[in-house]
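Sample entry (140 residues):
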Amino acid sequence: MCARILLAYDGRPAAQRAYDFILKMPPAERRDLAIVAVIRPSSFAVDYAAQTVLDQAASELGQRLAQLERRVRFAGSDCTTWIRLGEPVKEILKTAEEWRAGLIVTGQRFPEWMPRWGRSVSARLRSRAACPVRVVVSSP
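Predicted structure, serialized as tokens:
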């Protein structure tokens, strides 16, 4: 039984499927849920207009996380949300360690055997995480 679950959420359909997967778990297995969303800054983010876009994205993401949090609480679990700025794998692992997650859940659009450019975030999480990682794969 793993009651402290960290969901890595990026707003894409695969992340939504991972979220739905967690809500279908028995309440005793998801007593405490944290959701982390990571915004990857671009190299041009020093520009004022880029900062405005980043602030707007963070605001919209915050509103979406608040909706997810309300749904989790309605389903009977505690929920915490974070928005981090940085490289996704590093920030997710840092959050998992700080929060002492017992399980990380993430979505993935394609199965691991399908060719892609580089390794996916979920594959890198699985190879580096100190706790188990559950990857919810959605079809393309």
